[in-house]
Write a structure and sequence with these properties.
CATH class of the largest domain: Mainly Alpha
Shape: globular
Helix content: 55-70%
CATH architecture of the largest domain: Up-down Bundle
Distance between the termini: 28 Å
Radius of gyration: 27 Å
Largest sheet: 2 strands, antiparallel
C-alpha cells in the first residue's frame, strides 16, 4: 500500500513546506555527525600514540564510543526537560557551545583519559532529541513530515562524507613520527616527515608536531560556533508556550533578512489582538461562533499567565477540579463536542494541572482524567514502546558497525593468522587516508540515496514496509564483511589489487542506503505513535534509551572482538552482529503505522 499522499505530485506535497527554518535546523543538525565521526580515520593511530598496545585498540576505542553514548544517555531527558522549561532555542544554543568546547579539549588531548573526558563531554552536550522535537513542531502537516525527518539521516550522511575528509587531511592531521619505526607495520603505510630541529621551523609545523590532531578539531569547533550565531539570529522558537516570548536575536536576524530584500513574518510579540483567548467575551451568541472555531492548535494559555476562563458567569477552575464529564460541559450550550475535546487536550498540557485524558476504549489506555505533578502519565503506550524498541535495536547494531569497521580496516594484516574460511585475525592494513575515503564515499552514497531514492520509496510504500525492507538487507552485509579479507592480494595473489576495496565500497554503500531508509522511517513512526503532548518527553526518552544501546554496544562488542581476535575467530563477532540485526527485522514485523494526531481528532 502506498502512503496517503502517494497520488500527490512532489510540488503539491512540498506546498507550504517551512523551508527556511528547516534549512537552519539542518545546519545545526550537521554539527553532530561531523563532531562524532571526524576522529574515525585517525582513532587507531591516536590510541597507538597514547601508548595503547596494538592488540588492545579494539577495546580502548570502544571506551571512547561508550563514554559518548553513556553521557548522552544520562543527559538526554534533562536537556528535553530544560527545553520545556526554558524553550527549545536557548537550550539548543547552550548545548552547541558545550559541543564546541569539548571538540577543543579532544583535539588538544595529550593522554587517553583526557580524550575520554572530552568524548564524555561531547555525549553530554548532544541534543538530537531536541532537534527531533523541533522538526516535528516545524513540520506540522503530515505530508511534510517524511521530507522533514529525512533531513536527520541526510545531514548525518553529508557529515559522514566531510568529517573523514577533515579527519584524514594531511593539512589538518599529522600522525606523530614516533609511532612509526622499522619494526612496526605502520612504517609501511605512513609517510613520516622527519621532525625538524631547526630554530627557524614554522609555527604551523611546530604546532602540528606538538598537537597532531588539534587543527581538525579547531576547524569543527569553529563551524559549531558559526552555527550558534546562525541559530541565534534566524532560528524560531517552536515550543508552544514560548512562541510569543520576545526574541532579540530573531529580531536582529529579521533586520538582516529585510535588508537583503526578504520578507519576514510578523512576530507574535509585535501583533495585538490576534488571539480570541486574549479578548474578553461579552456577547454569548458571538462567543459561540468564536469558540466553535477552536481546535487543538489554538493557544489557550501562555507560560507567564494562568489560563483564561472560557465560560461567562461560571467558575471554570472549580468545574475542572471537580472533574466534570464531557456531557456536563456540553450542557452549558456554549461548546460543541469538538471544541470541548480541543479544550481538554490543550488544558492537559498545562504544567500546573497535568490533566491526562485517555479513551477507555483504547487497550493501551492508562487512566481517565488523572492529575499528576511533573509525571508524564500515559506517555509510554504500547505503540511507543514498540517503536522505541525498534530504534534501540537499529541503533545498537548500526553504531557497532560504524565504530569498529575503521579499526578492522586499520588493523595489521597478518597473513600467517588468516586461513579460509573461519580463521581470521588482524585487519586489512589500510592507512588513514584510504579509510577516510571509504567512509566519505559511503556517506556520499547515503546522501544521494536519501535525496533520490528515499522520496520515491516514501511516496509508494508505507513507512513500516520500507523500514522492514531495509532491516532485511543489513544482516547480509555484516555476514559478508569479514570474508572480504580473503580477497586481499597479499593473501591470494590471484585477486586484483583493487578488488577488496571495491567490494568494501559496495558493502558499506549497501549498509548506508539501508540505514538511510530505516532511520527517518523509525523517527517518523515514533513521532506518529506518540501522544502529541508527550512528544518532547518521548523523544528525550527515546534518545536516552538508544544512547544506552550505543553505550553498551561498543563495550560488549569491544570485549567480544578482543576475545575472538585472541583465538583467531574474528568472524564470530560479525556473525553475532548479523544475528542481532536479523532480530531487528523479526521485531519490525510486529510494527504498524500509527497516527496519534488522527486518533486525537477522532476522539469522541
Amino acid at each position: 500500500m502506498s502512503s496517503d499522499y502517494g497520488k500527490m505530485t512532489f510540488r503539491e506535497q512540498m506546498r507550504g513546506f517551512p523551508l527556511f527554518q528547516m534549512f537552519i535546523i539542518s545546519l545545526i543538525r550537521f554539527t553532530e555527525p561531523i563532531a562524532f565521526t571526524s576522529f574515525f580515520p585517525y582513532v587507531y593511530f591516536m590510541l597507538i600514540g597514547f601508548g595503547v598496545p596494538e592488540n588492545e585498540t579494539w577495546r580502548y576505542s570502544s571506551y571512547y564510543a561508550a563514554s559518548f553514548a553513556f553521557f548522552q544517555f544520562l543527559f538526554s531527558i534533562s536537556w528535553c526537560k530544560a527545553s520545556d522549561k526554558f524553550g527549545r532555542k536557548p537550550t539548543l544554543l547552550v548545548s552547541l557551545l558545550g559541543s564546541a568546547l569539548s571538540m577543543l579539549v579532544f583535539g588538544f588531548a595529550k593522554s587517553y583519559f583526557v580524550g575520554l573526558i572530552a568524548r564524555s563531554m561531547m555525549g553530554g552536550f548532544t541534543v538530537i532529541a531536541i532537534i527531533r522535537t523541533i522538526i516535528g513542531e516545524i513540520a506540522t502537516e503530515k505530508r511534510h513530515q517524511s521530507i522533514a525527518y529525512l533531513t536527520l539521516p541526510a545531514f548525518w550522511n553529508i557529515g559522514v562524507v566531510l568529517a573523514p575528509l577533515i579527519g584524514s587531511s594531511k593539512y589538518l592531521v599529522r600522525v606523530p613520527a614516533d609511532i612509526a619505526n622499522p619494526n612496526n607495520f605502520l612504517s609501511k603505510i605512513i609517510t613520516v616527515r622527519p621532525i625538524s630541529v631547526s630554530t627557524a621551523e614554522g609555527f604551523y609545523d611546530s604546532f602540528m608536531d606538538k598537537y597532531p590532531y588539534a587543527l581538525s578539531n579547531i576547524v569543527i569547533a569553529a563551524y559549531i560556533i558559526l552555527n550558534i550565531f546562525i541559530g541565534f539570529l534566524f532560528l524560531e522558537e517552536t515550543h508552544p508556550d514560548f512562541k510569543g516570548r520576545r526574541d532579540y536575536g530573531l529580531e536582529l536576524g529579521d533586520l538582516i533578512r529585510t535588508g537583503l530584500g526578504y520578507e519576514v513574518p510578523i512576530r507574535p510579540w509585535k501583533s495585538e489582538g490576534l488571539s480570541i483567548i486574549q479578548s474578553n467575551v461579552t456577547d454569548n451568541n458571538s462567543s459561540v461562533l468564536e469558540i466553535e472555531s477552536i481546535d487543538e492548535r489554538t493557544p489557550l494559555h501562555h507560560s507567564h499567565t494562568s489560563p483564561r476562563a472560557f465560560y461567562n458567569d461560571q467558575d471554570v477552575e472549580d468545574d475542572a477540579l471537580s472533574t466534570r464529564s464531557d456531557d456536563s460541559v456540553q450542557s452549558t450550550n456554549f461548546l460543541s463536542k469538538r471544541a470541548s475535546n480541543a479544550i481538554v487536550r490543550r488544558y492537559s498540557e498545562i504544567p500546573q494541572l497535568h490533566l491526562t485524558r485517555t479513551n477507555t476504549r483504547d487497550p493501551d489506555a492508562v487512566s481517565i482524567f488523572t492529575f499528576q505533578e511533573g509525571v508524564e502519565v500515559g506517555a509510554f503506550t504500547k505503540p511507543v514502546i514498540q517503536t522505541i524498541t525498534a530504534n534501540f535495536i537499529l541503533s545498537f547494531h548500526n553504531i557497532i558497525y560504524w565504530e569498529f569497521i575503521p579499526v578492522f580496516l586499520a588493523g595489521e594484516f597478518l597473513k600467517d593468522e588468516v586461513l579460509f574460511p573461519f580463521t581470521i585475525r588482524g585487519g586489512f592494513g589500510f592507512d588513514s587516508a584510504t579509510i577516510g575515503n571509504l567512509l566519505s564515499y559511503t556517506g556520499l552514497i547515503g546522501t544521494l540515496s536519501i535525496m533520490i531514492l528515499f522520496p520515491l520509496i516514501d511516496r509508494h510504500m508505507r513507512a513500516v514496509v520500507s523500514y522492514r525492507c531495509g532491516q532485511a538487507v543489513i544482516p547480509f552485509v555484516y555476514l559478508a564483511l569479514p570474508f572480504m579479507i580473503f580477497t586481499l592480494p597479499d593473501y591470494n595473489p590471484k585477486f586484483k589489487p583493487g578488488l577488496t576495496l571495491n567490494l568494501l565500497y559496495c558493502l558499506s554503500s549497501l549498509s548506508t542506503v539501508c540505514s538511510s531508509i530505516c532511520f527517518p522511517q523509525i523517527f517518523m513512526l515514533i513521532h506518529r505513535a506518540s501522544i502529541p503532548k508527550h512528544r518532547s518527553y518521548i523523544n528525550g526518552a527515546s534518545l536516552s534509551i538508544t544512547s544506552l544501546a550505543r553505550c553498551i554496544a561498543p563495550l560488549l562488542w569491544g570485549s567480544l572482538m578482543s576475545i575472538t581476535e585472541k583465538y583467531s575467530i574474528s568472524e564470530v563477532a560479525w556473525f553475532s552482529l548479523a544475528l542481532l540485526a536479523f532480530s531487528g527485522f523479526i521485531q519490525s514485523l510486529f510494527l504498524k503505522d500509527y497516527d496519534e494526531d488522527l486518533k486525537a481528532e477522532d476522539e469522541p
